[in-house]
Automatic annotation (TrEMBL):
Keywords: Hydrolase, Metal-binding, Zinc. One of its GO terms (molecular function) is metal ion binding. Pfam families: Amidohydro_1. This is dihydropyrimidinase. Homotetramer.
C-alpha cells in the first residue's frame, strides 16, 4: 500500500524553555520504521516573523532522511504577516496556516485575528487550521485547579474539559462559515468537538477533522497514575479524554465524519516532563506517536486491533484504511497523486504489511530518542515488514537503512479540491442579499 503520510508533527519544537527530543533525523527514522514515508511539521515563527521561522526550520531539517512538508503557525497579525503569508504560499510551498485558540499569552490568537487570518487564507487558497480549545476558559480552569491544590498531571485534563474543546471547535466552524473558507481542525480528542464537525459537514460546510492516534487508542487513566513520570508522559493538549471518547472517534472515522489520522508527535523525555513536577502548567505538552501512525491504525483500545475489528468485520475496507492513513492527506494538501498513491508517475513510497505478523510496542524498539512510551506494552498483529521511500528500501528485516540529508522538502501548492466552487458559493450568497435597497424618504 502507499506509505503513510503524517499531517501533524512537531520535531525539534521549542516549548517551555526546552525542545522536543526528536529532531528531523531521529523522528523521521522512527517514522520510516513504522511505515510513514512523509510528514508535515509545524513551523513556529521567530518573534512573529514567518520568514525567520521558515529559515530556522530549514536549518532544523537539513539532516532529514524522509520527505517532509511544512505548515506555518500564525501568532500575531499585521500587514507584514499578511505579506509574508503570500510569500510562504507562492515561493515556499506552504499551503496551510495554523491558528492557536489556546495557550493564552503565548500562542493564542483572538477572534479578530482569527477572522483576518481566515480571510487571508481564503484569498491565497491556503487551508486554515485551528487548535480548538477556549484559551481564556482553560486559563481560568488552570487557576481553579491550583487553588484546589491539584498540581499533578491530572490537573492538566481537569483544567481543560471536553466542553472547552467543543466550544472552540463550534466557534471556529461558525467563523469559517462566515468567511466561507475551508477549515481543518487538528488533533480532535473529544465527542464534543467531533459532534460539531459532524453537524457542520452535514450542512455542507467544508470542515476536516483530524483525530490523532493517542486519542483513538488511549484513555485518560494514565494521568492518575501514582508515579509522576508515568502520569506526566500522557500530558498533551487537548488532553487524552475519558474512556468512550476514543471509541466515538473510531466510529466517526469508520463512518466518514472524520477524514484522516495524524500523530501530533511532540516527544519530551521524563526529565523534561519533570519540569512540572510541582505544577502541571509547566509540564511540556506532547506525546510520542510518529512511529505508530500505521501500526496504531490497526489497534483498538486495550490491544484490540482496528484491523481485526473494523477491516475484517467489514466496517471499513482496506481501501478506506489507505485513505485514512495516506490518500486523503495527500488530497487535502494538494500533493496527490505524487503522494498517497501507487500509480505510474507517483513517488515510489510503498510499504509492505503482513496482517498476520505480531508486534509489541516497547521503548527499546521505537527508534525515537524518547525514554518513555505512552503505548508501552501494547501487542497486536499487523506489522510493516518493508518500507520503500522514493524507490529506496529503508526498512527491512527490522533494520533501518537511512542516510542524513536524503529527505526532500515537498512543496504543496495552494487551492486544493477543498476550494472547488468557493467562488460560485460567494456569488450565490451576494445575489441572495437583495441589497442595498434603493429607498426614498416618504417625509418629503
Amino acid at each position: 500500500m502507499p506509505g503513510g503520510i503524517d499531517p501533524h508533527t512537531h520535531l525539534a519544537m521549542e516549548a517551555l524553555r526546552t525542545e522536543s527530543i526528536d529532531d528531523f533525523f531521529s523522528g523521521q527514522a522512527a517514522a520510516l520504521a513504522g511505515g510513514t514515508t512523509m510528514h508535515i511539521d509545524f513551523v513556529i515563527p521567530v518573534n512573529g516573523s514567518l520568514s525567520a521561522g521558515f529559515k530556522a526550520y530549514e536549518r532544523k531539517a537539513k539532516n532529514s532522511c524522509m520527505d517532509y512538508g511544512f505548515h506555518m503557525t500564525i501568532t500575531k497579525w499585521d500587514e507584514v504577516v499578511a505579506e509574508e503569508m503570500e510569500i510562504m504560499v507562492k515561493e515556499k510551498g506552504i499551503n496551510s496556516f495554523k491558528f492557536f485558540m489556546a495557550y493564552k499569552g503565548i500562542l493564542m490568537v483572538n477572534d479578530e485575528l482569527l477572522l483576518e487570518g481566515f480571510k487571508r487564507c481564503k484569498s491565497l487558497g491556503a487551508l486554515a487550521m485551528v487548535h480548538a480549545e477556549n484559551g481564556d476558559a482553560v486559563f481560568e480552569g488552570q487557576k481553579r485547579m491550583i487553588e484546589l491544590g491539584i498540581t499533578g498531571p491530572e490537573g492538566h485534563a481537569l483544567s481543560r474539559p471536553p466542553v472547552l474543546e467543543g466550544e472552540a471547535t463550534s466557534r471556529a466552524i461558525r467563523l469559517a462559515s462566515f468567511v466561507n473558507v475551508p477549515l481543518y481542525v487538528v488533533h480532535l480528542m473529544s465527542i464534543d468537538a467531533m459532534e460539531e464537525i459532524a453537524k457542520a459537514r452535514k450542512s455542507g460546510q467544508r470542515v476536516i477533522g483530524e483525530p490523532v492516534v493517542s486519542g483513538l487508542i488511549l484513555d485518560d487513566s494514565g494521568l492518575w497514575a501514582p508515579d509522576f513520570v508515568t502520569a506526566a508522559k500522557y500530558v498533551m493538549s487537548p488532553p487524552i479524554r475519558a474512556s468512550g471518547h476514543n471509541k466515538a472517534l473510531q466510529a466517526a472515522l469508520s463512518s466518514g465524519v472524520l477524514q484522516l489520522v495524524g500523530t501530533d508527535h511532540c516527544a519530551f523525555t521524563s526529565t523534561q516532563k519533570s519540569f512540572g513536577i510541582d505544577d502541571f502548567r509547566k509540564i511540556p505538552n506532547g506525546v510520542n506517536a510518529i512511529h505508530f501512525l500505521i501500526l496504531l491504525m490497526m489497534e483498538k483500545q486495550w490491544m484490540h486491533l482496528v484491523w481485526h475489528t473494523m477491516v475484517e468485520s467489514g466496517k471499513i475496507s482496506p481501501t478506506n484504511y489507505v485513505r485514512l492513513t495516506s490518500t486523503e492527506c495527500a488530497r487535502i494538501f494538494n500533493i496527490y497523486p505524487r503522494k498517497g498513491a501507487t500509480l505510474a508517475g507517483s513517488d515510489a513510497d510503498i510499504i509492505i504489511l503482513d496482517p498476520n505478523s505480531s508486534f509489541e510496542i516497547t521503548t527499546r524498539s521505537h527508534h525515537s530518542r524518547l525514554d518513555t512510551n505512552v503505548f508501552e506494552g501494547m501487542k497486536g498483529k499487523g506489522k510493516v515488514e518493508v518500507t520503500i521511500a522514493g524507490g529506496r528500501i529503508v526498512w527491512e528485516n527490522d533494520q533501518l537503512k537511512v542516510v542524513p540529508g536524503s529527505g526532500k522538502y515537498i512543496e504543496m501548492p495552494p487551492f486544493s479540491y477543498l476550494f472547488d466552487g468557493i467562488e460560485k458559493a460567494d456569488a450565490k450568497y451576494l445575489s441572495s442579499l437583495h441589497a442595498p435597497v434603493k429607498r426614498f424618504n416618504s417625509a418629503t
